[in-house]
Design a protein that fits this description.
Layout: H1 2-28, H2 38-47, H3 49-83, H4 85-98, H5 103-114, H6 118-142, H7 146-154, H8 159-194, H9 202-211, H10 215-243, H11 245-254
Helix pairs in contact: 2-10, 3-4, 3-6, 3-8, 3-9, 5-6, 6-8, 8-10, 9-10
């Protein structure tokens, strides 16, 4: 009930924005190729489902696969860098430096090296997902209480037990923060990768629509990108609430 009471404001703001957009387009006689009205975009989204459904499903499949790979590499790298401090001191600055290279600049090189197949696209999504997850997880490990770590050592716990019972649970909230960021990045990374030369995907659909001045289809593509990002984000939040219930319970007890 509380979520409904607090969630009506952004919904009302979006509704007002759409109404103003619709009215302004009608009163100013803005041509559809320049700025279609929300009703025109909706009609195209409904009537053109058969044209873009294969593009949508292709992007979803590519996003999920790339996100899974990026998440696995990000978590694995964070764990290795946490357990090996000397390796972290060597590699961490290189990780920061790698983020100064724009993906849109690196993408053509990946095409030259790996062709137009699915591999360069997965590499792009992995790169955009890897960094937020790895950095967030490392920050979570750093937040481990030194008092609790000392207590476990005094109780006879070894490094594996300290990691599994203390450090890993402590890092989970930070890990999920990185996952939520990467969830939205993965969709955008998939669309960018599809601009490079894919046969199907929302990025391909958007490119074809813009080249033929079908602005309504471009907005349909933008809408579905936003929906995918939102659904992906909500899915991560739902999993987070199930995995780290102990945090919420602890906050309620202290509250």
């Amino acid at each position: 009930m509380k979520r409904i009471m607090t969630g009506w404001r952004p919904a009302a703001a979006i509704l007002v924005l759409l109404l103003v957009w619709e009215a302004a387009g009608s009163l100013a006689n803005v041509p559809a190729w320049l700025l279609p009205s929300p009703s025109q975009i909706w009609l195209e989204a409904v009537s053109g489902w058969a044209d873009y459904q294969q593009h949508l499903f292709s992007t979803i499949k590519l996003t999920l696969l790339g996100f899974s790979i990026g998440t696995s590499i990000g978590i694995g790298s964070a764990v290795c860098l946490h357990l090996l401090p000397k390796l972290r001191e060597t590699v961490y600055p290189l990780m920061i430096l790698s983020q100064n290279i724009p993906i849109i600049v690196l993408a053509p090189l990946l095409v030259i090296w790996f062709g137009f197949g699915v591999l360069p696209k997965l590499i792009i999504i992995t790169l955009v997902c890897f960094f937020p997850i790895a950095v967030s997880t490392l920050d979570g490990f750093r937040q481990t209480s030194p008092e609790l770590r000392h207590y476990l050592k005094m109780a006879g716990a070894d490094k594996r037990q300290i990691f599994s019972k203390l450090e890993w649970p402590t890092a989970l909230p930070s890990l999920f923060s990185g996952l939520k960021i990467s969830a939205t990045y993965s969709v955008m990374g998939a669309v960018i990768s599809e601009w490079l030369g894919a046969q199907r995907g929302i990025g391909v659909y958007m490119t074809l629509a813009s080249s033929s001045f079908r602005t309504d289809r471009v907005f349909v593509a933008i809408f579905f990108i936003m929906v995918l990002c939102l659904l992906f984000f909500v899915a991560i939040v739902t999993i987070e609430k199930r995995v780290i219930r102990w945090k919420k319970e602890g906050e309620e007890q202290h509250g």
